[in-house]
Amino acid sequence: MLQKNTTKRIGYWLLHLHQQFDAATGALLHEQRLTRRDWQILHALQIGLGSVAELDAAFAPFLVADGARTYQPIVDDFTARGWVESAGAALRLTAAGEAAHERAEALVNAHADDSLRGITEEEFLAANAVLAKISANIDTD
Asked: Is the pTM of this model over 0.85?
C-alpha cells in the first residue's frame, strides 16, 4: 500500500481540493455572477463544445456531485444574459458571452497562477496523468 500511515489519503485531498476550488472560484467570480460550474460551462462553450448534450457528457461527474441531471439551466441563464445563442441544439457564445468569458478567464488564470505557485508544469502534468491512470484503473475493474 502506497499510503499507509496517514488519514489524509488521496480521496481526502481530492475532495478537499474540490471543495476549495468551488469556494475559491465562487468567491472570485461572485461579481461576475458566476459559480465555478457556470465558469466551467462558459469556458467549455468558448473552447468549442456546442450542445447541452456535449456539456453534460463532458461534466458528467459534476452532474452527480451537483445532484443535477443536466446543465440546461446554466445554458438558459446564459441565454437570458445574452451570452449564448442557439440554432436548434447547437450553441455558441455571442460577442457578449465572449466578453464575459474573457473577464472571467482573467480572474481564473490569476487564481490558477497563485494556486499552482511552486509547481512546475512537469509536476502538474505528472499529477494529472497519475489521477487519470487511477481513474482508468478503477473504470476497468
From this structure: no
